[in-house]
């Protein structure tokens, strides 16, 4: 069955890249004209089995943005997001270059979203289970609320996906992705307008656990 998942990844990712070649070229031109910076943004993520790889995105923030401001955290009103980048993020178009990752075999069309090393360093045994499958371009968590969900909720959905994976489930998630990302465009940022509050949520959870024990 996992061989079938890879076959679907290759066929669909190839078809999507073919269909999106001209739109991607136009987006690349828009990014380049905006500030003359690089079109693509490359960042290390942790994939299946804890192996690192580099994920590709269309650049939506100013050059060197991760070294300034909120660092790896992104806010809805973040001044580091470019004008073109704000449109790309709103429609989820910045993620499209990850189709290259899918073809390369470091990602799948569907799976837990690729995670950052500092997050993996904080994982407990349950959370590490999301690394049992390749990270995905979309996920069950994405179509269930995306960043509007807390990290524990997202990870629980990822682990449920790992335990219940099927080709049928993947196809349902892909169809739902079109609706949630391109139509509803919900959950782009967290409830407080800030993404990637992983460590803060971990600390809050630990505090609650200590309170329950006390």
Note the main attributes of this structure:
single chain; 214 residues; mainly alpha; 8 helices; 4 strands; 50% helix; 9% strand; disordered C terminus
Can you describe what's shown?
By secondary structure, the protein is mostly helical. The chain has one domain. Helix content is 50%, strand content 9%. The protein contains 8 helices and 4 strands. A hairpin with a 5-residue loop joins β1 and β2. It is globular, with a radius of gyration of 17 Å.
Based on CA atoms alone, the radius of gyration comes out at 17 Å
Instruction: Note the main sheet.
Output: 2 strands, antiparallel
Count, helices: 8
SSE string, helices as H and strands as E: HEEHHEHHEHHH
Give the overall silhouette: globular
Strand tally is 4
Separation of the first and last Cα atoms:
47 Å
Poorly predicted runs: 203-214
Domains, number:
1
Instruction: Give the strand content.
Output: 5-15%
Binned, the helix content reads: 40-55%
**Mean of the pLDDT scores?**
89
Structural class: mainly alpha
Spatial strand arrangement across the major sheet: 1-2
């Amino acid at each position: 069955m996992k061989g079938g998942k890879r076959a679907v990844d290759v066929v669909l990712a190839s078809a999507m890249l073919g269909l999106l070649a001209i739109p991607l070229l136009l987006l690349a031109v828009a990014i380049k004209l905006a500030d003359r910076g690089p079109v693509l943004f490359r960042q290390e993520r942790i994939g299946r089995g804890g192996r690192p790889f580099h994920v590709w995105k269309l650049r939506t923030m100013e050059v060197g943005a991760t070294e300034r401001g909120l660092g790896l955290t992104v806010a809805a009103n973040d001044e580091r997001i470019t004008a073109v980048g704000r449109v790309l993020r709103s429609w989820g178009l910045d993620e499209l270059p990850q189709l290259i990752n899918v073809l390369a075999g470091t990602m799948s069309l569907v799976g837990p979203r690729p995670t950052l090393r500092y997050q993996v360093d904080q994982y407990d045994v349950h959370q590490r289970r999301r690394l049992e499958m390749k990270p995905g371009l979309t996920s069950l968590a994405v179509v269930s609320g995306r960043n509007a969900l807390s990290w524990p909720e997202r990870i629980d959905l990822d682990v449920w996906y790992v335990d219940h994976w099927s080709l049928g489930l993947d196809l349902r998630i892909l169809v739902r992705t079109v609706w949630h990302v391109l139509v509803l465009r919900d959950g782009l940022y967290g409830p407080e307008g800030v993404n990637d509050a992983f460590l803060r949520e971990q600390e809050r959870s630990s505090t609650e656990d200590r309170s329950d024990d006390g």
